[in-house]
Amino acid sequence: MGRIVQKFGGTSVADLDRIRAVAQRVKQEVDAGHQVAVVVSAMAGTTNQLVAWARDIGPIHDAREYDTIVASGEQITVGLLAIALQNIGIDARSWLGWQIPFHTDEVHSAARIEHIDTAAIAERLDQGQVVVAAGFQGISPEGRITTLGRGGSDTSAVALAAALEANRCDIYTDVDGVYTTDPRIMPKARKLNHVTFEEMLEMASAGAKVLETRSVAMAMRHNVNLQVRSSFTSDEGTMVVDEDNDMEKQKISGIAYSRDEAKVTLVGLPDKPGIAATIFEKLAENHINVDMIVQSASPDKSRTDITFSVGALNADKAVACLKTIEADLEYKDIVSDPDVAKVSIIGTAMRSQPGIAKTMFSVLAEKGINLHVISTSEIKISVLIDADYTELAVRSLHDAFGLEEA
Amino acid sequence: MGRIVQKFGGTSVADLDRIRAVAQRVKQEVDAGHQVAVVVSAMAGTTNQLVAWARDIGPIHDAREYDTIVASGEQITVGLLAIALQNIGIDARSWLGWQIPFHTDEVHSAARIEHIDTAAIAERLDQGQVVVAAGFQGISPEGRITTLGRGGSDTSAVALAAALEANRCDIYTDVDGVYTTDPRIMPKARKLNHVTFEEMLEMASAGAKVLETRSVAMAMRHNVNLQVRSSFTSDEGTMVVDEDNDMEKQKISGIAYSRDEAKVTLVGLPDKPGIAATIFEKLAENHINVDMIVQSASPDKSRTDITFSVGALNADKAVACLKTIEADLEYKDIVSDPDVAKVSIIGTAMRSQPGIAKTMFSVLAEKGINLHVISTSEIKISVLIDADYTELAVRSLHDAFGLEEA
Known about the structure:
The structure is a homodimer of 406-residue chains.
Chain A: E1 3-8, H1 16-31, E2 35-40, H2 44-56, H3 63-70, H4 72-87, E3 92-95, E4 102-104, E5 113-116, H5 119-126, E6 130-134, E7 137-139, E8 145-147, H6 153-163, E9 168-173, E10 194-196, H7 197-205, H8 213-222, E11 226-230, E12 238-241, E13 254-270, H9 275-285, E14 290-297, E15 303-311, H10 315-323, H11 326-329, E16 333-346, H12 356-366, E17 373-377, E18 380-386, H13 390-400
Parallel strand pairs in A: 1-2, 1-9, 2-6, 3-6, 9-11, 10-12
Antiparallel strand pairs in A: 4-5, 7-8, 11-12, 13-15, 13-16, 14-15, 16-18, 17-18
Helix pairs in contact in A: 1-4, 2-3, 6-8, 7-8, 12-13
């Protein structure tokens, strides 16, 4: 007996049959005696249609209107799921973001949840009614509909679990858990039973698409018991947990990769103090997130090269905005390369196991894979490589670190 | 200079091009110096999809969830239209039913508007911002989304015009006004420049599909200047006005017909007091609206026949529920006939011109058209005839009353 938040994404509610299957999943938890709040996304096809309409109606985008349009997607799903539950004898009602409400800031299309009033829904849960909540949406201080940005339903679910002090937050998805790496490119990839919050965070930001970064950070902050599991099988999924102290981890946990990267190099910059600051301030002003950075000596000793990686969609914008300060930077050339990928190994084991970086670099060197940029955190090492080598790098590292064995 | 409410239905906003055309219509009024509030329906295809989903998800229909689902349709349109307006330089924002708000009662799917808080939107209108309001929807006392039933956007527009004390309420539709009869079956049908509220009411309830009955009644009650005009041409439409006192009308105004009728006859009822009351009470209890009624002598003198008309969809239900009280009614037979149509002539001229009924019956008799039931009001005469004769009846009456000439 306890409170459970279940979250079902767009592919899990893509049509009426799947919504009925979701209703059965909810029923299992209700039958087990739990109080259940369900958070749902829009039906997969609906979101695409709404986004296309909002983009195509005209070049000017008022984010408040955009949010009004796309938030109708979850509105449809919550109503349909509530009816599906009622049809199998489960007391249920739908709740829109503004009805609960999910109070957010006013940053439309990328709003942050500030506070959830749980009084009304907690009362319904105590009465045994299933709460069917629209994910992804909230209400601004001005009373307008906001959205959290795509993928935001994970964050809605975790925030709701935290506010309701739920015993568990189950994120249902089209994979059955978190894997050591992407099974599509490494058949020997193994499902993890546990992963720590920090590892999950690093995996998400390194390109693993299982959970959204913000939702993991929020779960960590509020210590929400998070589980990733499949909508389509009844297998146990992967629990995302606090770092496990009773066992010294011997291995890294996973390998992530991302092809949505581009490399930009400024060649032959004058080697003077403050030049890096000028560059990265300019990029920040233009809302371009820089991921990895390396500075290297130019053949001309008085000059230096700076290479950094950005999201592939931002590469042209980064080049264009740095060209506007060409006179200040005095670089000799600026080049961008979209054919790169980032491969990362992640694991809290790095804290206690020296030599992991050395192993990684040796393995890649043996395969003749050139490393353009390297970056590390306490529990992660990322390298930027030519995109063509992505699969080879992932498989070689998976073998080298013995990830197929539990 | 004044305040104008414009209403655009589902076919007028059926795709992005039409929404852009609507934006141009709005711009014309803004450019003419008017304050403009626009009420829109859902895109025609969207409504059909939403209704289909809500029906197909399961046999139990919680009307509150149904309303949540279908109200997302207008939510999409208001956002798109607001963006379309902004893209042609018009300041505009969308308003959902709960944001304005349109307070309604709690009768989901057939809610009545009780009160509209116009403070917030009136302030925006005064600032020159176009108000883009979702039609068809409101908010219940409990804070849930309600809908007014299909076609309810006309009522939303008239209610908003009344609450805002607008100078005019223009209902844009796919016809360019109110005609003397349906031009599809009578090519000589003529567009009316004026029609009175009462005539419009009778026409709507007699089957003319131009305006919803409730919206006309509301316009009459609040004396809203209502105009029916085309979304696709810039011609003047038909003004719905208070009865014109300075001119004695010589002719009827229009001929309406409806094929959505069925005739039910109870044969050989005992001719005793209270038997009609028993029948019509039973039907009312089962929410079956009876339109026309006639009682006639049976060949057996101690017995009587009662014939009435109901909406075609209710015929089987009416027969079934009367069969449950067969023992009380002691009828000899009950028969229903769906192949009937109602043809009505409407006009305030009937008040001052005697002989209109006689002309009508003579014309129909000349054509050999049998009248099953007749009903009259002060400004309307309706007859129930065999459906096959509908077009012939409409055309003959149109000619006989000289409606092609202004």
